[in-house]
Amino acid sequence: MHPLEKFEYCPRCGSKHFVVHNEKSKLCENCGFVYYANPCSATAAFIINEKNELLVVKRAKEPAKGTLDLPGGFCDMYETAEEGIRREIKEETDIDVKDIEYLFSIPNIYRYSGIDIHTLDMFYLCRIKGDVEIHAADDASECFWLPISEIHSEQFGLRSIRQAIYQADFLKNLK
To answer: Residues near 49 by Cβ (< 8 Å), separated by ≥ 6?
Structure first.
């Protein structure tokens, strides 16, 4: 299915002649407007404490409600990925992180409200020193520290998070 299939009318002139132009765009045959479906920016954080535990959250909402996840979410407009990951961590766990390190990205499809949203998920490493209080909020029903040795990727409900955990070599070195 084309990412823009559900969008039938041209956003510029309202014409119904809004057709697939190529794999990334739709074209209005009336006014010539071309709309590109670029991926949304999303972030996720591997937050590690001094005991080599990973901070995980339990998803409070669909998709994958009730499964494990990493703190993170969509970046807002006019926000850098770094600002977005810090905001999402604060919203979901009440932690203020200072130092973050970009690790890698994974293209993903996030099904929401019946539409496949193409995302570019950017993963960051955050290290926490000392004891910090965590409180689940926003999209997280719970948050807790999970020993690295007890991480099993199949417990995580979103495909890109499972893939990230699988390819995060630094986790294997902490066990």
So the answer is: 55, 127, 128, 129, 132, 145
Tens-digit pLDDT profile for the chain (175 aa)?
667 888 899 999 999 999 999 988 999 999 999 999 899 999 999 999 999 999 999 999 888 999 999 999 999 999 999 999 999 999 999 999 988 999 999 999 888 887 888 999 999 999 998 888 998 888 889 999 999 989 988 999 999 999 999 888 777 776 5
Cα–Cα distance for residue pair 108/92, rounded to 1 Å: 21
Q: Tell me the pairing of strands 68-69 and 18-22.
A: unpaired
Geometric angle at alpha carbon 85, from 84 and 89, rounded to 5°? 120
Beta-strand relationship, 115-127 and 40-48: parallel
First to last CA, the chain: 41
DSSP states of 107-175:
EEEEEETTEEEEEEEEEEEEE--S-------TTEEEEEEEEGGG--GGGB-SHHHHHHHHH-HHHHHH-
Question: Measured on CA atoms in the order 149, 155, 158, 163, is the torsion positive or negative?
Answer: positive
Whole-structure pTM value: 0.89
